[in-house]
Specification:
941 residues; mainly beta; TIM Barrel; Immunoglobulin-like; 5 domains; eight-stranded antiparallel β-sheet; 60 strands
Length: 941
C-alpha cells in the first residue's frame, strides 16, 4: 500500500493554533512497517563500550590455562570442552609441603599421591603441548619446610622433575601461594624474606635456568606490588589475582611488571572481568580458577583475534568488551568481580552498522546489566556473560517462549516419554501431536543464576520439570531425563546457531549437544548428549507451540518494486498466496546480487519503508517470505532505488500525545521513562520531561546529512546547567548538541559540534525560563547559524564539521552524550529536522507570532473571548458550524494540568468562573471530535 502525501495548512486565529506548518506527512492510521519500528529508548548506562565491527582492532594475545591446584578432573574436562584442547596452553599443578622428603629426593604420603593424580589428569585430558606451572598446595605445612628455604626449594625441584619425567615442560614455579594470607607457609612476619630466600635457592639451581620464578601470587591485589617489589630482583614473573583490594592496584600491577621486563600473570582468574581487565593492562598469562564455561571459553578464543572495544567501572569492579575472533565472529562480554562487584549497566554501541545481539535487532545499541552485591560476598553472584553480535543474510531467531523442538534429521519432536510428569522419565523423540508433553518453555536464565548467565532453561509444559543430564554425566551417550527444576548446571543449555533456523542445544555442564541416538528417524528413539559433530541429528528448530511441523518453504514473493523518496525508499510486493506465511524478511545490499544484509524481519504487511537509506547511494533489495515453521522462501526478484536527497523535512515530531514522525519517512522516536504530554505551543500537546529520568530517543540515522536544520519550541523550567535540548552523536567526542545553559551564572545557549579533539561552537545568552522559546540551528558548507524566536543571534563561517563526519547513532532530545550531565527539565514541542539549511525568512515563518496572521479560512470568525486579562469571569462565545462542533472547554495550567473542565455540546457561549484561580498565564483549550485549539489566557485579579 503506497502512502498518501497530504498537504497540511496552518490556521491561525488570534493566537489559536490548529495544525502546524508541515511538509509531506502520513496519517498515523496509514503507517506502514519501517526500519525504525524496533526502536526502543535505552536507559542511561553506567558505562558504554563503543566499537566498529569493521575496525582493524587491537591484538591482545594471551597464554591461557586451567587449574589443578583444586584437584578435580571434572574441572579440567569441562574447561577443555569450552576452551578447546588446543587453547589450554598451561595447567597449574602444585607441590605439597605436607610431608618431609624421603632421602631429600622423593615425595611421600599425600604429596606423592596427589602429585601423581595431577600428572595423570594432565596426561589423560590435556594435549601434548600443554605446559605446567607450579604453585603451593597447602592443606598443611610440615615443620620440615618451615623457614627452611633449601627444603622448600628441593620440594619444588622434585615435583617439577616428576612432571618433566611424565613428558611435560615446566615453565614457571611460585614458591608461595597467596602469601599475603599466609596459609601456614611461613611463621610470624618472615613471609617476604622466606619467599626471597627460596627464590635465591631456585635461582642458583641450573635446573631452573629456563623456568620462570613467579611471585608474589597475592590474594589481595593491594598487596601485589609490595610483595613483588621486595622479591623482584630474584623474579622473572609478577603474579596476583583478585579476591580483595582495589581496581587501581590490580590494573597498575600488570603495568609495573611489564615495565620492569617481567612476565605478568594472574594464576587464579575468578571471572571473565579479571581476564578482560588483565588483558587491557598487560597480563600475559591467565589461568581460570575452577573451570571455564561458555563466556570464559569464548573469551579465550576471541583473544586470539582483535579487541574492538572496552569499558570498565573501577568503583563497581566490573568491565565489558567486544572482540572479533580469528574467524571474524564478533562477541560482547561482561563480567564482575567475584566478591566486590556493584551492579553495573553496560551499553554496547556499534558505530558503523546496525547489528543483532543474540538475534535482537537490527540495532546500534544493546544494554547488558551485570548484577553485583552490596558488599564483600553480600549478594555477589560472580556474574559473567557472552552475547553474539551478528549481521548478514541469516540471523538467528530470538528464543524466549513456548516451543516445539523439532529435530532436523528426523522431523520428529522432543517429548517426555508417555507424557509422564514423574522425575526420572525419559526424554525421546516422537511424532508431533500438539500435546503439552511435547511443548517446552524456553527462557533465558536469571542474571543471578550464579556465575555465567549466557544460558537457557527448558521446562516441560505439562509438568514444569526440566531436561537433565542424568547423573551429571560428561560422557558421550549420557542420557537425558526429566527432573525437578533445580536450575543446576546440568539443566541449563546454550544455543549455538547452525543456520536456517536450526540450533545446537549444548549443556552448560558438559558442552555436549542434545542429539537423537544413532540418528534414528523412528518414534521413541532416545535423546542423549554427544560431542558436537555437525550432524543434523544434533540440530533443532524452535517452532512456536501450536504450529504444524512441516518443511515446505513458501514461494518467493513476486512483483517486488522499490520507489525512492528524498530520504527513504518505499518497498512493495504482492502478498504471498500461502496462508501460513508469518511474515517477510527484508534484505539489502550495496551491490547487485548481494551479499545481502537483513534490515528487517517479521514484516506482516506487503510494504516496507527503508528510512535508513543514505541519500544518493544506490541500494539493491530482495524480500523473502517466512512461514510459521520458520521455512524461508527463495529471494524475490531484486529491486533497486536511490533516495534522491531532495530538500525535505526529514523528521517532524509534533508530540501530540505520541512520539510519531509525521513525515513520510516515519522516523518515529521513542520515549524513556513515564513521559507525559501537556498543552503545547503548536498543535494540541507537547512532551513533558521531568529532568530526572525521562528523555526522547530518535532513530540512529536521523541526522546523517551534509546540511541540516534543527528547529523546535522549548519551555525550559530551569535546573542545573548543561541540559541538552538535543544531542546527536556517538559519544562525548563526536556530537552535535544544543545546550540550554553552559553555567549557573552567565551561562550561554550553546550549539556545539565535536569531532575528536576539534570543537566548534555558537554561543548566545542562555535560554529564557518559564516561557515558550523557538530555537533553530542551521548548518551548511558556508557555516552555522543560531536563531532564537526567529531572530539570528549568532553565526559563524568557520564551521568545518558536519554530521556525516561521524554519522551520529545516539540521538536524543533532552539527554546528553555525557551520561553524567543532567537531563532536560521542561517541555519540547514541534521538533523538526530538515536535510538542508533553511533561510532566515523560513526560520521566521516557523517561529511566527501566531497573533499576527490572518486566518486562511473563516471557519472560526465567530469566536470571541473576553475580558483579557480576565478577573473573576471569562466569557467564551463562538458560532456553530459543522467544523466547530466543540464538545468541551478546559482551562489548564502551563504544566498541562486541567483546572476547569466544562462540557459545552451545542451551546454557543459559556462562562468560566476563574475567581479561585491564582493570577498568571494559563491555556484555554476547546476540543472537538477531530481537533482542538489552544489560546494563552492571562488572569489578573
Amino acid at each position: 500500500m503506497k502512502k498518501a502525501i497530504l498537504p497540511v495548512i496552518i490556521f491561525l486565529i488570534s493566537g489559536f493554533i490548529i495544525i502546524p506548518l508541515n511538509a509531506q506527512t502520513t496519517n498515523t492510521a496509514d503507517r506502514i512497517a519501517s526500519a525504525g519500528d524496533n526502536l526502543a529508548a535505552q536507559p542511561v548506562p553506567d558505562r558504554t563500550v563503543f566499537y566498529n565491527v569493521s575496525d582493524t582492532g587491537i591484538s591482545k594475545p594471551l597464554t591461557w590455562g586451567l587449574d589443578l591446584a583444586w584437584l578435580d578432573a571434572t574441572n579440567i574436562r569441562r574447561g577443555v570442552a569450552f576452551m578447546g584442547a588446543d587453547r589450554v596452553d598451561v595447567v597449574r599443578s602444585s607441590f605439597m609441603p605436607t610431608s618431609p622428603l624421603v632421602g631429600d629426593s622423593a615425595l611421600q604420603g599425600d604429596a606423592l599421591t596427589n602429585t601423581s593424580k595431577r600428572i595423570a589428569i594432565i596426561n589423560n585430558y590435556l594435549g601434548p603441548t600443554t605446559k605446567v606451572v607450579l604453585n603451593c598446595d597447602h592443606p598443611s605445612v610440615d615443620p620440615y619446610f618451615l623457614e627452611n628455604a633449601s627444603h622448600w626449594a628441593k620440594l619444588i625441584e622434585v615435583t617439577a622433575k616428576m612432571h618433566e619425567e611424565s613428558g611435560r615442560t615446566v615453565v614457571s614455579v611460585s614458591p608461595f601461594n597467596e602469601p599475603d594470607y599466609g596459609w601456614g607457609q611461613y611463621t610470624g612476619q618472615n613471609g617476604k624474606s622466606d619467599f626471597y630466600d627460596i627464590c635465591g635457592m631456585l635461582r642458583s639451581n641450573p635446573d631452573f635456568d629456563s623456568i620462570r620464578i613467579s611471585g608474589g601470587n597475592t590474594l589481595n591485589c593491594d598487596e601485589a606490588l609490595p610483595w613483588y617489589n621486595y622479591l623482584k630482583d630474584r623474579l622473572d614473573e609478577g603474579n596476583t589475582h583478585q579476591l580483595a583490594g582495589s581496581f587501581d592496584s590490580f590494573a597498575n600491577f600488570f603495568q609495573v611488571v611489564r615495565a620492569n621486563g617481567d612476565h605478568a600473570t594472574d594464576d587464579e582468574l575468578h571471572n571473565v572481568m579479571e581476564a578482560m581487565v588483565g588483558a587491557e593492562y598487560g597480563m600475559q598469562t591467565g589461568i581460570w580458577w575452577g573451570t571455564a564455561e561458555l563466556a570464559r571459553g569464548e573469551f579465550v578464543k576471541a583473544s586470539d583475534g582483535k579487541r574492538l572495544g572496552y569499558a570498565e567501572d573501577r568503583s563497581n569492579w566490573t568491565a565489558a568488551s567486544v572482540y572479533r575472533n580469528p574467524q571474524g565472529i564478533v562477541k560482547a562480554f561482561g563480567g564482575t568481580s567475584e566478591r566486590q562487584a556493584i551492579t553495573t549497566t553496560y551499553r554496547f554501541v556499534s558505530k558503523d552498522r546496525p547489528v543483532y545481539y543474540d538475534g535482537n535487532g537490527p540495532q546500534y545499541e544493546y544494554t547488558m546489566e551485570m548484577p553485583g552485591g552490596t558488599g564483600y560476598q553480600q549478594g555477589q553472584t560472580n556474574a559473567e556473560r557472552v552475547v553474539n553480535i551478528t549481521w548478514g543474510d541469516d540471523i538467528q531467531p530470538v528464543i524466549n517462549g513456548k516451543y516445539i523442538l523439532v529435530n532436523r534429521n528426523s522431523g520428529l519432536v522432543m517429548e517426555v516419554a508417555n507424557g509422564s510428569t514423574t522425575a526420572g522419565a525419559n526424554i525421546r523423540q516422537g511424532t508431533n501431536k500438539g500435546a503439552t508433553y511435547q511443548q517446552w518453555n524456553v527462557t533465558p536464565v536469571s542474571s543471578r543464576i550464579g556465575g555465567d548467565f549466557s544460558y537457557f532453561t527448558f521446562t516441560a509444559v505439562n509438568s514444569g520439570k526440566s531436561p537433565d543430564v542424568y547423573n551429571w554425566s560428561l560422557e558421550n551417550n549420557g542420557n537425558i531425563a526429566l527432573w525437578d527444576n533445580t536450575k543446576g548446571a546440568n539443566q541449563q543449555w546454550y544455543l549455538e546457531y547452525a543456520g536456517d533456523g536450526w540450533f545446537y542445544i549444548r549443556s552448560r555442564f558438559s558442552a555436549r549437544c542434545l542429539q537423537v541416538a544413532n540418528a534414528s528417524t523412528v518414534d521413541g528413539a532416545n535423546i542423549e548428549q554427544y560431542e558436537k559433530n555437525d550432524n543434523t541429528n544434533q540440530q533443532w528448530r524452535f517452532i512456536p507451540a501450536g504450529t504444524p511441523v512441516e518443511f515446505q518453504a513458501p514461494s518467493a514473493p513476486k512483483n517486488f518494486v522499490a520507489a525512492p523518496n528524498a530520504e527513504s525508499v518505499l518497498l512493495n510486493w504482492s502478498a504471498n498466496p500461502e496462508n501460513d506465511v508469518a511474515g517477510y524478511t527484508i534484505l539489502r545490499s550495496d551491490k547487485t546480487g548481494g551479499s545481502y544484509n537483513t534490515i528487517a524481519r517479521k514484516v506482516t504487511s506487503d510494504s516496507f519503508l527503508d528510512n535508513t537509506a543514505t541519500a544518493g547511494k544506490q541500494y539493491f533489495y530482495v524480500v523473502r517470505a517466512v512461514d510459521n515453521s520458520l521455512n524461508r522462501s527463495a529471494y524475490s526478484n531484486e529491486a533497486s532505488a536511490t533516495a534522491t536527497g531532495d530538500k525535505e523535512l526529514v523528521t517532524y515530531l509534533q508530540f501530540d500525545g505520541n512520539t510519531l514522525d509525521s513525515t513520510i519517512n516515519q522516523n518515529n522516536a521513542a520515549a524513556y521513562g513515564d513521559t507525559t504530554f501537556v498543552a503545547g505551543k503548536v498543535g494540541d500537546e507537547a512532551v513533558s520531561l521531568n529532568g530526572k529520568n525521562e528523555f526522547i530517543q530518535l532513530p540512529a540515522t536521523i541526522a546523517n546529512h551534509q546540511n541540516i536544520t534543527i528547529s523546535t519550541w522549548v519551555y525550559w523550567k530551569g535546573g542545573p546547567p548543561l541540559q541538552r535540548i538535543f544531542d546527536f552523536g556517538t559519544g562525548e567526542n563526536e556530537s552535535m548538541s544544543l545546550t540550554t545553559s553552559t553555567g549557573v551564572i552567565s551561562g550561554q545557549l550553546r550549539f556545539s559540534m565535536k569531532n575528536g579533539d576539534l570543537e566548534e561552537q555558537l554561543n548566545a545568552p542562555h535560554l529564557a525560563l518559564y516561557t515558550w522559546t523557538h530555537v533553530a540551528v542551521t548548518l551548511e558548507a558556508s557555516g552555522a547559524s543560531m536563531y532564537v524566536n526567529g531572530e539570528l543571534v549568532t553565526e559563524s563561517d568557520n564551521f568545518t564539521i558536519n554530521p556525516l563526519d561521524f554519522k551520529p547513532v545516539l540521538n536524543y532530545i533532552g539527554r546528553s552524550q555525557n551520561d553524567s550531565d543532567p537531563l532536560f527539565y521542561g517541555y519540547i514541542d514541534d521538533f523538526r529536522i530538515y536535510n538542508y539549511a533553511l533561510q532566515a525568512n523560513e526560520i521566521t515563518q516557523l517561529n511566527a507570532d501566531t497573533t499576527t496572521y490572518e486566518p486562511v479560512t473563516n471557519s472560526y470568525n465567530g469566536l470571541s473571548i473576553w475580558p483579557v486579562p480576565a478577573d473573576n469571569v471569562l466569557n467564551v462565545n463562538f458560532s456553530l458550524t459543522k467544523k466547530t462542533e466543540f464538545h468541551a472547554i478546559e482551562m489548564l495550567n502551563m504544566d498541562g494540568r486541567t483546572l476547569i473542565h466544562k462540557d459545552i455540546k451545542s451551546i454557543a457561549s459559556s462562562q468560566l468562573n476563574v475567581s479561585n484561580i491564582p493570577a498568571g498565564i494559563y491555556l484555554l483549550k476547546l476540543s472537538s471530535q477531530k481537533n482542538s485549539i489552544l489560546k494563552k489566557i492571562v488572569i489578573k485579579h
